[in-house]
Amino acid sequence: MKKYLFSLSILFSINVLGGTLPDQPAKKQRFKVMTYNIHHCNPPSAGDKIDVEAIAKVINAEKPDFVALQEVDVNTERSGKGKNQAQQLAALTGMKFYFSKAIDHQGGDYGVAVLTKFPIVDSAKFALPIRPELKEEDRTIAAVTVKLPDNRKLIFASTHLGLKEPNRLLQAETIMKYFGETALPMILGGDFNATPESPVIAYFDKYFTRSCTDCKPTIPVEVPKKTIDFIMHKQGGKLKSANTKVIDEQYASDHLPVTAEFTLD
C-alpha cells in the first residue's frame, strides 16, 4: 500500500511539474491574422518592378502570427526565375510558409499561400472548380494545421475566389465540402472577389463568422470603394475575433491588407 501511494505521489509530481494534468484548463491563446492580396509583389505605381521587400515591410509592421496571401508568383518570368515569393516572404518575416498553385503562368506557378509563426503539422491544397459554361482562371485554397503554444491545433487557410458569382458559389461549396466537418477551429482569409451583400458571402455567413460586419473597403488602394478581402472563423468553436483593421498602405499592392485579432478560449 505504501509503495502504491508513493508511486501516485511521484506521478502527481511529474504531471504538475510538467504541466500535463489532463484536466488542467488550456490557457487563452491570442494571435493576430492578416489577409493580403500582394499583386505578385508588383507595386502598381512602379511599372514592372518586383518589390518583395515592400510586402515584407507591411507584414513586419503589423506583426501578425498568420498571413493569408493571394496572387503569389513562384518561378515566373515576370517575378524572377528561381524566385519563390512565398519562400522569400517567409524568410523576410521569420515565418513558415505553404503555397498552393492555381495556374501555370510564364513558365512558373501562380496561386495562394499562407505564412505562420507556429509549427506546421499538416497541410493541404485543393483546386476550386469553375462551371463549364463560365470559363475563367482556375482557383485554389491552401490550408495548414498548426500547433499552438498550448499544443492545441488550428487550421488556417488562404483562398482567392473567382470573378463570376456562380463560380464563387461553387468554390465556396467546395471549401465547405473539404472543411465543413472538421472539429478543429479554423480561420479563413482571402480575396473573395465578393462584397458583403453578395450571395457568396451570405453562404459563408451560414458557416463562418466574419471578423467584422461593417468592414471598410479594401480596393482600390486610393479612395477604396469595395470590400472584398475578409477574415472569418468557423462557427461553433471557441474562437473569437476583434479589432479588424484595414491598413492604409498604398504603395506595395493594389489591395489594402486587413488584420484582425483573435482569441481561442
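That was protein one. Protein two is written in the same sequence-then-structure order:
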Amino acid sequence: MDIFWIVLGSLLLIVGVLGCIIPIIPGPPISYISLLLLQITEKHPFTTRFLVIWALITTVVTVLDYVVPVYGTKKFGGSKKGIWGATIGLFIGIFFSPPIGIIVGPFLGALIGELIAGKESKVAFMSALGSFIGFVAGTLLKIVASVTMAYYFIVNIF
C-alpha cells in the first residue's frame, strides 16, 4: 500500500509544482498534500511540528499570492483606485478568464483604476507594472515553497 501512496504523492507533487506556473491550480496546497500522503506510509517520515509548520507556510504563501500584486501596485505609486482596480481585476480574472485573467486582470484593473483617478498614462502604467511584478513575486514564492516540499518528499521516500 505504501507504493500507492508514494506514487499518488509523486503525481500530486508534479501537479503542485506545475500549479505554481499555471495560475488556476493551487500549487503549494497540492504539494503539501503530497507530504501528508507520504506521512501515512509505514515510515511516517515527518514530525507533527514539521507538518504544522509546512501547513502554515503553505497557507501564508497561498494568501500572499493574492495580496502581493495589490501591494506591488501600491509600491509603484498606485492610488487607492489603482489598488481597488488591481483587486477587482484579479477577481474578475479568476472567475471569467482563468488562467490568463489572473495575470492580465490585476494589470488592467490597476491601469483602469489609475486612469479613472486622473493619473497620466505613464504613471498609470507604472502602477499596473507594479501589479505584474507583484504577480511574478507571488509566483516565485509558490515555486520556492513547492520545490522545497518536493525536496523533502523525495529525500524521505528512501
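The chain has one domain: 2-157. Keep this in mind for the problem set.
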